[in-house]
Amino acid sequence: MDVANKSTMFEFVLLGLSNSWELQMVFFMVFSLLYVATMVGNSLIVITVIVDPHLHSPMYFLLTNLSIIDMSLASFATPKMITDYLTSHKTISFDGCLTQIFFLHLFTGTEIILLMAMSFDRYIAICKPLHYASIISPQVCVALVVASWIVGIMHSMSQVIFALTLPFCGPNEVDSFFCDLPVVFQLACVDTYVLGLFMISTSGIIALSCFIVLFNSYIIVLVTVKHHSSRGSSKALSTCTAHFIVVFLFFGPCIFIYMWPLSSFLTDKILSVFYTIFTPILNPIIYTLRSQDVKIAIRKLKNRLLNFNKAMPS
Q1: Tell me: the pLDDT tens digits for 34-54?
Q2: Burial state string for 53-72 with b = 16 or more CB within 10 A and e = fewer than 16
Q3: Which CATH number fits the domain that encloses residue 230?
Q4: Has residue 10 been placed in a domain?
């Protein structure tokens, strides 16, 4: 069977997180609330940064793009998972499965590079403050964001091309709530050990290497901040701590899943839920709670909306 026929005739059955009807209803309500909260929280950050002139800086420009990516990451599979809880036949076409793989790796790949760009921004701001304006210009910020999307597209294309070469001739039950290579390639009629090595080399090692680079950069930044005892240093420490929490929450599950692609399906399910559903909602919470600038800007936005409503004729 050629690829074209496979893509039109083959479908996968998504087993989801549980077979229990009661648990599925609980998941339906919880994930529906989390999805709405993710979209509202990240949209609030985007709107706040756009509206408030005080937040028109490179760091918040990158944060806005991170929020957009988080909304996209939360949307590539979660809405289907939520609606699947209301049906008994949870299937996805071959093309739909490839589409999920493409967008998953597009958004995760883009977010990895964007997190590195945010780390670079903080490194220059704290370690080379006198050169910050000349190094982190608006053009450089746009170039960093564009580069992150280009890398994300290239990475996701490599994953889709790899998936297209896999021969599927047997079981079609995907033990997850969305399609990703670690679970899909185990259904292929080839040696999974070789495929596992591909996963480790193209995703696992890349994620681990980027995490190590980010970890080292934040260590340098924190050591620099420690040698300064001022209000600005305290603010920088708070910002960098928030950044590192986001990095750890995002990279931890990714590294585990792609460095050990033949690990337990239950573990992979839990980690997949974490970085596709929980991390996108945690990002706005972490940045909002730890950033005084964002909290003040949100308060101003709320007051402007309240004053606008009062000024409206009844």
Answers
A1: 999 999 999 999 999 999 888
A2: eebebbbbbbbbbbbbbbbb
A3: 1.20.1070.10
A4: no
Angle (deg, nearest 10), helices 205-226 and 231-259 = 160
How far is it, in rounded angstroms, from Cα 275 to Cα 264? 17
Q: Establish if 82 belongs to a structural domain.
A: yes
Range of the domain at 122: 15-291
Is the Cα dihedral 20, 26, 27, 28 positive or negative?
A: positive
Is residue 68 within 8 Å of 38, Cβ to Cβ? no
Instruction: Write the secondary structure of the chain as one string of H (helix), E (strand) and C (coil).
Output: CCHHHHHHHCEEEECCCCCCHHHHHHHHHHHHHHHHHHHHHHHHHHHHHHHCHHHCCHHHHHHHHHHHHHHHHHHCCHHHHHHHCCCCCCEEEHHHHHHHHHHHHHHHHHHHHHHHHHHHHHHHHHHCHHHHHHHCCHHHHHHHHHHHHHHHHHHHHHHHHHHHCCCCCCCCEECCCCCCHHHHHHHCCCCHHHHHHHHHHHHHHHHHHHHHHHHHHHHHHHHHHHCCCCHHHHHHHHHHHHHHHHHHHHHHHHHHHHHCCCCCHHHHHHHHHHHHHHHHHHHHHHHHHHCHHHHHHHHHHHHHHHHHHHHCCC
Classify residue 283: in a domain, yes or no.
Answer: yes
pLDDT tens digits along 204-260:
788 888 888 888 888 888 787 777 655 556 666 777 777 778 888 888 888 877 777
Spatial separation of the C-alpha atoms in residues 113 and 152, rounded to whole Å = 8
With respect to residue 44, please indicate whether it lies within any of the assigned structural domains.
yes
Amino acid at 303: N
Structural domains counted in the chain: 1
